[in-house]
Specification:
Blueprint lengths: L2 E5 L3 H12 L3 E5 L3 H9 L12 E6 L3 H13 L3 E6 L5 H9 L7 E6 L20 E5 L6 H13 L3 E4 L2 H24 L6 H4 L4 H7 L6 H9 L2 H25 L4 H22 L14 E8 L4 H11 L6 E6 L5 E8 L4 H10 L3 E3 L1
Parallel strand pairs: 1-2, 1-3, 3-4, 4-5, 6-7
Antiparallel strand pairs: 5-6, 8-10, 8-11, 9-10
Family: Belongs to the prephenate/arogenate dehydrogenase family.
Pfam families: PDH_C (PF20463), PDH_N (PF02153)
GO molecular function, one term: prephenate dehydrogenase (NAD+) activity
Length: about 350
């Protein structure tokens, strides 16, 4: 691929443009807000000047509601050899394009499964998609050359191609992205008017659950408006689970021993279902559950602490499988949780203690 046109210079469009430009592709940038395109160009994502003639691939990175109209305009003027969009829903835009009577052999819907809580070109990075799934939804009509262009884009962004049916994709993202975002927002909403003394007790658990609730509501209205049915179906199932859980909790308040037992059984049931679902979330080594141990170390909020602890772990010959930081509220300290193979945990613990680190039991 030598030339590309990116329409929409938000987080996703600019990140794709940065990746392409860094690998030698001449990228032309366009946006309904020219200032945003100029910002992306200043970051090194390409040029905000219009291409002379057609390009090889046009990447449409606009909200789902505007995908079909944007693609129709590009196709009408022959802007590119191939056309893709990167919207988070796939079935709706394609049906809109079909209704317009367009020749869709040169089009393929795609969706990079990556993002951040921040939006706009200033949040973009060339490595946003590295190692992340990038869904492609070709049909029998899709031109092979266009599919190859889309696959080349995914490779240049160092993502992992996943081929799916468009409607199956929409049901899948409703489950793993859209519905969880709404649930996260609902949990975070409980904090809005909570007493300050309660909020000050927030720990890592509530931070984990509410992290994605910080995203731009306007962007999520666009996303959810394009995929309301599957999300509503899933929330109805969650609502049913919530009703059963509330009844179980009420039973635990009863003075009747049998009712309390039923309540405890109900709570255990939902918690065990959660265990069974959580272990299916793919991790570093795929979807099979892997047993690890966590070594928690007290660290100060000072430059060089993380580099030092990683260096000490490396010197001990221990590979860190995962890492997270649990911050202490209102203090310049916290705990870094180092996830390692079970056999490596005592080795790492002893090595870090020898080097003066405080290990949390």
């Amino acid at each position: 691929m030598r030339t590309a046109l990116v329409i929409g210079t938000g987080l996703i469009g600019t990140s794709a443009a940065l990746a392409l430009a860094s690998r030698g592709v001449t990228v032309h940038l366009a946006d309904h807000d020219p200032e945003q395109a100029r910002t992306a160009a200043a970051l090194g994502a390409g040029t905000d000047s219009a291409p002379e003639g057609s390009v090889e691939l046009a990447v449409v990175a606009v909200p789902p509601a505007h995908v079909a109209a944007t693609l129709a305009g590009l196709m009408a003027r022959g802007a590119a050899r191939g056309y893709i969009d990167v919207a988070s829903v796939k079935g709706g835009p394609r049906r809109e394009l079909e209704a317009l009577g367009l020749d869709l052999t040169a089009y393929i819907g795609t969706h990079p499964m990556s993002g951040r809580e921040r939006s706009g070109p200033l949040a973009a990075t060339a490595d946003l998609f590295e190692g992340r799934p990038w869904v492609l939804t070709p049909t029998r009509e899709t031109d092979t050359e266009v599919l190859n262009l889309a696959l080349e884009l995914v490779a240049l962004c160092r993502a992992v191609p996943v081929v799916m049916d468009a409607d199956a994709h929409d049901r899948a993202v409703a489950l793993v992205s859209h519905m969880p975002h709404l649930v996260s927002s609902m949990v975070a909403a409980r904090l809005e008017h909570a007493e300050e003394t309660a909020v000050r007790l927030c720990g890592q658990g509530i931070r984990d659950v509410t992290r994605i609730a910080a995203s731009d509501p306007r962007m999520w209205i666009d996303i959810l408006s394009a995929n309301p049915g599957p999300v509503a179906d899933l929330l109805a199932e969650v609502s049913s689970d919530l009703d059963e859980t509330v009844r179980a909790l009420r039973a635990l308040q009863s003075s009747d021993e049998d009712k309390r037992k039923d309540g405890a059984d109900g709570i255990e049931k939902v918690l065990r279902r959660g265990n069974a679902g959580q272990v299916r979330v793919p991790g570093k080594h795929g979807s099979a559950p892997v047993a690890y141990e966590v070594v928690a170390v007290l660290i100060d909020d000072q430059p060089g602490q993380l580099a030092r602890i990683f260096a000490d772990a490396g010197a001990a010959g221990v590979n860190i499988e995962d890492v997270r930081i649990e911050h202490a509220t209102g203090q310049q300290a916290g705990h870094i949780q180092l996830t390692v193979e079970p056999s490596a945990a005592p080795v790492l613990t002893a090595a870090l203690r020898e080097r003066g680190w405080s290990i949390r039991q």
